[in-house]
Write a structure and sequence with these properties.
This protein is mostly helical. Helix content is about 70%, strand content about 0%. GO terms for molecular function: 5'-deoxynucleotidase activity; metal ion binding.
Length: about 200
């Protein structure tokens, strides 16, 4: 019997290489947590997954929720090749952007053969990077919120002071829903710290 499955890429070897890049996202620990000696740091994929669930919770009719979920799933895809580059590493924002653009072009044009699906992935990633649409701004807020939520959880589990993560994002949230979550998280953290 002939297989009539329409795959986005004709060359399975290239598709398999793409799948291995996705695997690296599952295995690569987030640099900020590694630097802080967190006992069991989350992976890049862990971070992206929780962001996608947070995006599903959006109640803003002005946002394209499906686009937001997709954007969370692809926003750190380049890190499967370049790693989780942080400001602590002395790499300029321009160099980080260059490396990530090169990685995304390789993934989308070479491995995924500039397919319709790869163009959607690249477009979502580029929209996130540009940060100009309502959806991109919302997802950027989710990115920062997920980080401080994780910091709060590590403060509890690892008994560490991760204040700098909260300070580096303070006042940088824009979406009303995410701002309300941030305010609640600050209150929870304040209560935790006052009970020590």
């Amino acid at each position: 019997m002939e297989n009539n499955i329409n795959t986005p890429v004709g060359n399975f070897t290239k598709l398999l290489e793409f799948f291995h890049i996705i695997e690296k996202l599952k295995k690569t620990k987030r640099t900020g947590w590694v630097i802080k000696n967190i006992e069991n740091p989350e992976s890049i994929s862990d971070h992206m997954h929780r962001m996608s669930i947070l995006a599903l919770l959006s109640n803003d009719d002005n946002l394209d929720k499906n686009k937001c979920v997709k954007m969370t799933v692809v926003h750190d895809l380049a890190e499967g090749i370049v790693g989780d580059i942080t400001p602590f590493e002395g790499i300029t924002k321009q160099e980080k952007n260059r490396r990530e653009m090169e990685a995304m072009q390789y993934i989308c044009k070479e491995l995924l053969e500039d397919s319709l699906q790869s163009r959607e992935i690249f477009s979502l990633w580029q929209e996130y990077e540009n940060g100009e649409t309502m959806e991109a701004k919302f997802v950027k807020d989710l990115d920062k919120f997920e980080m401080i939520l994780q910091a709060f959880e590590y403060e509890k589990s690892d008994k560490k002071d991760l204040t700098e993560f909260f300070e580096n994002t303070r006042g940088k949230f824009n979406h009303p829903l995410v701002k309300s979550w941030v305010e609640e998280l600050y209150l929870q953290r304040q209560n935790m710290n006052s009970n020590k």
